[in-house]
Amino acid sequence: MNRADASPWIETLVESHDEVLELWIGNESKLLPQRGLASAAEIRDQCSALLCVMIEALQKSNSFDADDAAWAPVRAHLAEVSTRQARRGFSAMETATFVFSIKAPLVAHARRLIGDMSSLSALIRSLSLLIDSLGLHTAETYGRSRDEIVRRQQLELLELSTPVIQLWPRVLALPLIGTLDSSRAQIAMENLLHKIVATGAIAVVIDITGVPAFDTLVAQHLLKTVAAARLLGAKCVISGMRPYTAQTIVDLGIDLSQVVTKSTLRDAFVVALNWARRAAMTQ
């Protein structure tokens, strides 16, 4: 439909903002509150905000094309809505449905004001294409936001799974539990090095008791961590060496001769504590 032909309807839409809003809220409120993710007041504010920016875009735009520059504020607003919905736990369907649900009240308003069936059909078709495009934009933005949230949560979990603990003044412990892949190893090394600098630690106990499988990759990660810590002035002792772990290291031909190892955390802590005491005596 030509934008100029829709001008009379758009002007009446401005005056009928509250009426259209009530129609929309009546439909939208049936969709969201069941899971307690949004209150009635939040739904009203969200609907009102989107309706306002859409009416403003309709007044400024020369078309019903969602990619038109005049619709940029609407796309930006929907991007914010998508991100917020993703963080609060709304599904992609619920988020997109919020946008699609505005179609019914706009069409109902148009039916009451436009008597010519040809003009009404053209307007409904243009509105449908516009809102469908905005709904797809919202779904795509939601997907990107959700992916970013998941990625950030994975990083947070990795950091939580590799804590650096201060056992004694200038003595740190890095307990490793579970499979030690490249991502976890990198985060563990970074956390440890930052903690060494922050605390001035000179001794570190790396406990591998909870690492189920010790292979060449794990050994390389440990050696890199030990070497990096040494560059910052901290010695490392590895605890948790069990018989099958020692046998695996020998079978793989891994050289840990330059690294102090102990079978138990207690023995490793004694070694680290002696290093710290000797360092304190020489200062």
From TrEMBL:
Keywords: Phosphoprotein. InterPro entries: Bact_StressResp_Reg, RsbRD_N_dom, STAS_dom, STAS_dom_sf. PROSITE patterns: STAS. Residues 161-272 form the STAS domain. The keyword Cell cycle does not apply. This is STAS domain-containing protein. It comes from Pararobbsia silviterrae. The lineage of its organism: Bacteria, Pseudomonadati, Pseudomonadota, Betaproteobacteria, Burkholderiales.
